[in-house]
Structures are given as structure tokens and as C-alpha cells.
Amino acid sequence: MVFDVVICARWRLSVVCAQARIAWQMLNYAEATAAAHGRRLLRLNLDETSVCLHPGRRRGAIFLTKSSLRTIRGQRVPKWKRRCCMTHIGLISEHQELHHALPQVLVAN
């Protein structure tokens, strides 16, 4: 059983490595083709970040005395508020002149 898992993991790793190699080959080909025609390739990076809308009260960079810690009670927050998140989706490029035109998207549920 363990031997089968190891073989399966190695096979999956080899498939992922082959796919990564193919992706880099395609990028190198696209760059060479663009350079042959006197053009620059536009590479974009899409990044997403989830932000909780109600993080609640948590300990942070606040210095409290032991007596004040005893009197602080937990904050009761319903599950639906704790599960509400907003996602920020941003696009960036290596070309500085395009940054003002690239979209920044907020998705809330």
C-alpha cells in the first residue's frame, strides 16, 4: 500500500514537472516570436487576497495589565458575520506605465 502511494506521488510529480516545463517552453517561444516581430510580451500577474469583514476582537500590540485581562469578556459574533469575507483581486505587470489602467476588483459575499 505504501509502495503504491509513493509511485503515485512520483508519477504526479513527474506530470506536474512536465507540465511546468511545457509552460516555460511556450513562454520562451512566445517571447522569441514577439522579439522577432519587434514587440514586447505583456506578462500579467493576478493576485487575490481574502479579507474578513468582521475579524472580531483579538490580542495584538495592546499592552494590558493582568487585572484588565480578567475583566475582558469575549465578543459574541454570529457565524454569518465571521464567515463574511471580501476578496481583493489585483493585476500587476512589469510595465510601470500600465499600472494605472489595470483593474482592481473587490468581490463581497
Query: Could you estimate the helical fraction of the residues in percent?
Result: 40-55%
Q: How many extended strands?
A: 3
The parts where pLDDT drops under 50 for at least 5 residues are 1-7
Domains (count): 2
* Major beta sheet summary: 3 strands, antiparallel
Describe the structure in brief:
This protein is an alpha+beta fold and 109 residues long.
Structure explained in plain terms:
This protein is α+β, with helices and mostly antiparallel strands. The chain folds into two domains: 1-41, no CATH class; 42-109, no CATH class. The chain has three helices and three strands; from the N terminus they run αβααββ. The protein has helices at 2-36, 66-71, 79-83, and strands spanning 44-52, 85-93, 104-108. It has a three-stranded antiparallel beta sheet with strand order 1-2-3, with no helix packed on it. 0% of the residues are buried. The model is unreliable at 1-7 (pLDDT under 50).
Distinctive features:
109 residues, alpha+beta, 2 domains, three-stranded antiparallel β-sheet, 3 helices, disordered N terminus
Layout: helices, strands, pairs:
Layout: H1 2-36, E1 44-52, H2 66-71, H3 79-83, E2 85-93, E3 104-108
Antiparallel strand pairs: 1-2, 2-3
